[in-house]
Amino acid sequence: MPHRTFFWFFFPSGLAMLLFIGLPIISSFFQSLHIEPEQILMEVEKCDPFGCKTETKVDIEATTKLQEEQPLGRFNGLGTYGDRNHLAFDEIKEAWTNSSSIAEFTDILLNLPFYKALLFTLTFCFAVTPPVVVLGFIVALSVNTITKSLKGPTIFGVILPMIVTPLIGSLVLFWMIDAKGILGSFIQFLFDDPNLSLKSSSQLTWITLIIYGIWHNTPFAFVVFYAALQTVPQDPIEAAIIDGASRYERVRHIVIPHLYPVATFIILICLMDNFRVLEPIIGFAAEGVAQSLSWMIYNDLRSENKMLFGSAGATSMLTIIGVAILLTPVLIRTWREFRTER
Amino acid sequence: MKKLLIALLFTFVSTSAYAGGHSPCGVTDGSIKILANEFTTYRIFMDEVKSCAGPDADFSVTHSVDHNKLQVAALSANPAEFSAKLVTNGSITTLMNDNLIRPLDDLVAKYGSALQDNQKIVIDGKIYAIAFMANAQHLWYRESILNDLGIAVPSTYEEVIAAAEKIKASGKMANPYAGAFKSGWNLGQEFVNMYLGHGGDFFKAGTAEVSVNNAKGVAALNMLKRLTEVSNPDFLTQDTNAVKEEWESGNVALMHIWNSGAASLLDDEGDQAIKADTRLAPSPSVGGGSKPATTLWWDGFGIATNTSDANAEASFRALLGAATSTEMANANPNATIWLIDGYSPGDTAGPVVDAANRGATPYPSLPYMSLLHGALSTELVEFLQGNESAEKALADVEAAYVAKATEQGFL
Fold first, then answer.
1. B243 C-beta neighbours (distance < 10 Å), count
2. CB-side neighbour CA atoms (13 Å) of A302
3. Closest C-alpha to B341, from B135, B118, B151
4. Which of B:336-395 have CB within 8 Å of A?
5. Shortest Cα distance from B118 to chain A (angstroms)?
6. CB within 10 Å: which end of chain B, N or C, has fewer?
C-alpha cells in the first residue's frame, strides 16, 4: 500500500485515537502533577437531633475562592508519584536502611499499597495468560474436528463466558463458591473440611480470581485460534498424512508454526487486559485481600470522600508505564520477526 | 441529646396538621430524582415519598448500598444527576465540604410547619438537611439459645465473646456471632464503634492530625479480632444485609447491627420461629468503659445545589411530606425510630435510647473523618487475617490517611 493511501486510510482512526485516548492521557498526566488547594476550616455551631455543639467545617466561600484561583489545584510536581500511596520513595529508603534481611525488606515493601497492588496485578497477569493460550488452543482444535451440525451450538457454549458481563459472571460465581453455595459445599465435601471457605484466606481468594480470569479469557483465545485454524493450508497436512505423520505430529510441526504469530497477538492482548483487572475484584468482594492497579484508581475516584484526581492520575500514568514495560519484549520480538520476513 | 430522644419517646402529640403552611404533597411540576441507601426502612420511607409526590409527578429513586461512593460524582455534575440525596451525619459532611447541598430555609418557611425543631439540621445558622429517623447499631440475640445454655444477656463485649464461645462449644452453632465486617465502609465502621467504646479520639483536638495508633486503638483491634474468631470465616465479605440473611437462616445467635434492621428481621417474611426468638439488647460496652461501643446516627435528606429551583422545590415537597407523615411512622413503629411529630415508638426503640442515655457519641461529622474511615476500610484487613500486628495495621492507617489528607489539602 502506498504511504499516501495508508495515511488517508489510517487518518480517521488516528484522529479518534488522539482525541479520545491521547488527550485524556495528557490531561490525566497534568492532573497527576497537582493536588487540591488548601482546605480552609472554620468552627461553626451545628445542631441535629442529638443536640447542638461547635464543630469544624470547611469554609466553603474561602475554599471555593481558592479553587477558582487555581482550578487545577496546587502544583505538586512529582510529589504524588513519590508519596506513600504510590511509589513510596521515602518509605522504601527507610525500609532499606532499617531492615536487617531481604525478607524483612520485602515484607515492608509489599505492605505498601502500590507494591501490594502491583504484586497481585503481575501475579494475575502471568498466572492467567499462559493457561488461556494453551486452553484456547486445545478448545479450538477440538471444536475444529467435530461435525458441522454440532459446531454452532458448541461455539456458542464455548464463548459464553466472554459474553457474560465480567461483573455478573463474577457475582454468580461468588454466590456459587459461598460456603453454602453449590460449588462451595462441594469443595467442602471433597476435602472433608466443613470450615473450608474460599473467601476467607488470601491465597484461596487469589486462586479463585485466577481461575475466574482463565475461565473468562479462554473464549477470546479460542475465537482467535479458531479463525486462524481455518487458514491452515491443507496441502502440507495431506502430504504429512501420506507420509504417515500422527495427529500430534501434524499439530506440532504444521499447525503450531502456522499459528505462532497469532499466539503472540493473543499473549499481547491478554497481558494488556489482565494488567487492568478490576471487575472480578469487585464481584468477588475481594478488595480486602486482592487489590490491582485499576482497583486503586477506582478506589481513589470512588472512596467515601471527594475524588482524589491527582492520586488516580498518578496511578493511571504508572499503569500505562507498567503496560508498556510488560509489552516491550513481545513487541521487540514481533518487530524482529517482521524485519526478517521482509 | 438525651433530652430530645426522651422527649421524643414520652411525648405523644396527637395531631399534626399542616396549619398555616402550604401542603407539600401532590407535586405537578419539576422532577424528583433521589439517591438513597438500600435497606427496608428506606423502602418504606420512599413509598411514602412517592405517594406524597402523587401520580402526576416525575418521580424516580435509586437505592444503592454504594450511595456514599456515588454521591459526590453524581451531585457535582451541573445539572446534578439527582435532585435529592438521603444523608446521614456521616455522609452529609462530604457533601457540605464541596457545597453540594443547598440551604433549605426558604423551603422550610414555605412548607415546613409540621416539622419538629429537632428534625432541622442547622449548620452555621442555616438548615441544610431534614432528619426523619435516628439509628444506632446494637446487640441482637436469640433468646431460646441463650436460655438453653443458661447465658445471661451480655452487656460487655467480653461477655459477648464468652457467650459465643459457650454456644460454639455446645455444638449448636459453628459461628454464633456476626457483625458487618465486610472490607470497606462496614469494617471501618466496626473499628469506629470499638475505638469510641474504648474512649478513643480520632484526631488531636482541633486539628486534622490523626491519632489512632495508641493503646486504645490496639485494644479495639484485638477485640475485633476476637469477635471475628467466633464469626463466619467469610466475615470479610459480609455487609449488614448479608449478616441479616445469616440471622434469618438461623446460623447466628448474637449480632451487632443497625436498629433499623428490625424492619426486615421482624416482618412477616422468613422463618417465623426465628423471628419470635429474636430479641434486641443494648449495645455492649468494652474494656471496662461505661460508654456503649456504638455511634448515634440520624438519617435525613438534603437537596442538591446543582439542580433547578423547580426540581429542588418538587423534591423537597415530596420528601417533606414523608418526613412529616405521622401515619407512616405509626403504621411502621418498629421500622426505626422516627423523629416525626406524633409518632409513638414501638418496642424496638429501647436500645437506641439506651445508647443515647449511656453517653454514646454521634458519628463524628468532621470534614476529614471520611478520609480516615476510608483508610480504616482497607488497612485493617491484613491484621484481621493474622498477617500483621495491630500496631503495624494502625501505623498503616495513619500513613494512608496522611497521604490522602495531604492531597486533599487538609494537612
1. 27
2. 15
3. B118
4. 339, 356, 362, 365-367, 370-371, 373-374, 377-378, 381-382, 385, 387-388, 392
5. 5
6. C
Length of chain A: 342
Q: What confidence category does residue A319 fall into, taking pLDDT thresholds of 50, 70 and 90?
A: very high
Contact call for residues B53 and B318 (beta carbons, < 8 A): yes
Instruction: Give me the half-sphere count of Cα atoms (radius 13 Å) on the Cβ side of residue B249.
Output: 12
> pLDDT for A221-233, tens place per residue?
999 999 999 999 9
Half-sphere exposure of residue B78, counting CA atoms within 13 Å on the CB side?
6
Would you place residue A85 in the very low, low, confident or very high pLDDT band (cuts 50, 70, 90)?
confident
Q: Cell match 486534622: residue?
A: B208
Taking the C-alpha atoms of residue B411 and residue B409, their distance in angstroms, rounded to an integer, is 6
| Whether residue B323 sits in one domain with residue B290 | no
Domain-wise residue ranges, chain A: 40-75, 78-111, 115-341
Chain A residue with minimum CA distance to B365: A55
**Alpha carbon distance B401, B67 (integer Å):** 22
Query: For residues B233 and A195, is the Cβ–Cβ distance under 8 A?
Result: yes
Residue B126, phi then psi, degrees to nearest 5: -120, 145
Average the pLDDT over B278-287 and give the result. Answer: 93
Query: Nearest 5°: phi and psi at B296?
Result: -95, 140
* Whether residue B44 is found in the same domain as residue B72: yes
Residues in A closer than 8 angstroms to B72, CB to CB, are 305-307
Check: CB of residue B331 under 8 Å from CB of residue B245. Answer: no
Domain A115-341: top CATH class? mainly alpha
Closest-CA distance, A38 to chain B, in angstroms, reads 4
Written as nine digits, the cell of B300 is: 435525613
Q: Are residues B290 and B300 in the same domain?
A: no
B272 and B128 fall within a common domain:
no
pLDDT for A286 equals 86
**Residues of chain A positioned with their CB less than 8 A from the CB of B99:** 60, 64
Residue B60 CA from chain centroid, whole number: 23
How many domains does one find in chain B? 2
Q: Are A307 and B72 within 8 A, CB to CB? A: yes
Residue A52: Cβ within 10 Å count: 11
Is 70 exceeded by the pLDDT of residue A219? Answer: yes
Residues B263 and B279 in one domain: yes
How does pLDDT run across B33-71, given as a tens digit for each residue?
999 999 889 999 999 999 999 888 899 999 998 888 888
Share of chain B above pLDDT 90, in %: 60
Distance from CA of B57 to the nearest CA of A (A): 30
Angle at the Cα of A306 from the Cα atoms of A302 and A312, rounded to 5 degrees: 60
Q: Which residue of B has its CA nearest to A286?
A: B237
pLDDT at position A62 is 87
Judge if B395 and B341 occupy the same domain. no
**pLDDT over 70 at A320, yes or no:** yes
CATH of the domain at B34: 3.40.190.10
Instruction: List the domain range (segments joined by +) for residue B259.
Output: 137-294+361-408
Rounding to the nearest 10 degrees, give the CA dihedral for residues B353, B359, B360, B365: 110
Q: List the single residue in B94, B184, B234 with the smallest CB-CB distance to A200.
A: B234
Are B146 and B290 in the same domain? yes
CA distance to A115, A143, A273, B212, B304, per residue, from B399 (Å): 15, 54, 31, 11, 34
**Which residues, numbered 155 to 194 in chain A, qualify as contacts with chain B under a Cβ-Cβ cut-off of 8 Å?**
178-179, 194
Q: Is B168 exposed, middle or buried (0-12, 13-18, 19+ CB in 10 A)?
A: middle
Q: Which residue has the higher pLDDT, A289 or A19?
A: A19
Average pLDDT taken over every residue of chain A? 89
Cα B360 to chain centroid distance, Å, stands at 14
Assess B409–A contact: CB distance below 8 Å, yes or no: yes
For residues B73 and B201, membership in a common domain is answered with no
